[in-house]
């Protein structure tokens, strides 16, 4: 083999290595694509796709005053009882009356065996008195899965990493009782989600980790 052939071979090897390097970088790019957003959303919904009603802690007590004020629990618990998802009994629970905390009669709702099947793992953050509260379970009405990625935002720097927000439509495997007109009336968000399958758009923020797009959760901050 002469010198010219050796040089040609070295050039070809260098070009091949350059192309392979670029292919590897492209496959590990932080620029969102339809495929990468589909992968990220499918993974997110597999882990966090339970659609729940914000009933984190049981039993749930409702006082006469709360029934009179038509609070959320006062409206929702009787409907859940009618669907055999909860059962009601009587008890006493502390309530603030003026500046004094007193024990008052309440109707106490507990999950039935049927209802317990819908009390599932679901991480959620709420705020009370300026403090974040992390909940790990909730009363859930269905499981969301990805229907279609609609769009995503141009990545922006947040701290030391890039973030993007993906908009998507979903499918829902909803419990049969979610189609009851009364339950949809007292849980309006449930009605929107169940009836919005395939058309309602949801959003989720993702952070680039260097290898993949991972969901940004409220409890991470």
Layout of helices and strands, plus pairs?
Layout: H1 3-27, H2 34-48, E1 50-52, E2 60-63, H3 64-69, H4 72-82, E3 86-97, E4 100-111, H5 113-116, E5 119-128, E6 131-152, E7 156-158, E8 161-174, H6 181-186, H7 188-195, E9 201-208, E10 213-215
Antiparallel strand pairs: 1-6, 2-4, 3-4, 5-6, 6-8, 7-8, 8-9, 9-10
Chain-averaged pLDDT: 89
Q: How would a textbook summarize the main sheet?
A: 7 strands, antiparallel
The amount of beta strand, in percent, is 35-45%
Segments where pLDDT lies below 50 for 5+ residues?
A: 11-27
**Total strand segments:** 10
The SSE string, one letter per element, is: HHEEHHEEHEEEEHHEE
Structural class of the helix and strand makeup? alpha+beta
Radius of gyration: 26 Å
* DSSP helical segment count: 7
Identify the notable features of this structure and list them briefly:
single chain, 221 residues, alpha+beta, 7-stranded antiparallel β-sheet, 3-stranded antiparallel β-sheet, 7 helices, 10 strands
Q: What is the compact description of this entry?
A:
The protein has seven helices and ten strands. By secondary structure, it is an alpha+beta fold.
Describe this structure in words.
The chain is elongated. Strand 9 (201-208) and strand 10 form a beta hairpin. The longest helix is centred in the N-terminal third of the chain and has 25 residues, at 3-27. It has helices spanning 3-27, 34-48, 64-69, 72-82, 113-116, 181-186, 188-195, and strands spanning 50-52, 60-63, 86-97, 100-111, 119-128, 131-152, 156-158, 161-174, 201-208, 213-215. The protein contains 7 helices and 10 strands. It is of the alpha+beta class. It is 34% helix and 41% strand. The protein has one domain (30-216). Strands 1, 5, 6, 7, 8, 9 and 10 form a 7-stranded antiparallel β-sheet that branches.
């Amino acid at each position: 083999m002469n010198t010219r052939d050796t040089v040609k071979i070295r050039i070809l090897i260098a070009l091949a290595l350059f192309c392979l390097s670029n292919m590897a970088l492209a496959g590990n790019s932080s620029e969102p694509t339809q495929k990468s957003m589909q992968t990220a959303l499918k993974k997110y919904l597999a882990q966090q796709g339970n659609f729940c009603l914000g009933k984190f802690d049981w039993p749930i007590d409702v006082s006469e005053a709360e029934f009179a004020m038509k609070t959320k629990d006062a409206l929702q618990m009787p409907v859940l009882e009618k669907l055999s998802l909860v059962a009601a009994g009587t008890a006493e629970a502390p309530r603030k009356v003026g500046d004094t905390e007193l024990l008052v009669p309440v109707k106490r709702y507990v999950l039935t065996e049927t209802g317990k099947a819908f009390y599932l793992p679901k991480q959620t953050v709420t705020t009370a008195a300026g403090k974040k509260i992390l909940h790990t379970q909730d009363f859930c009405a269905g499981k969301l899965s990805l229907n279609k990625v609609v769009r995503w935002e141009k990545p922006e720097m947040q701290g030391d990493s890039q973030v993007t927000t993906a908009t998507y439509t979903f499918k829902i495997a909803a419990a049969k009782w979610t189609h009851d007109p009364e339950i949809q009336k007292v849980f309006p968000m449930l009605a929107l989600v169940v009836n919005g399958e395939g058309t309602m758009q949801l959003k989720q923020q993702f952070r680039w980790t260097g290898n993949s797009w991972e969901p940004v959760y409220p409890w991470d901050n």
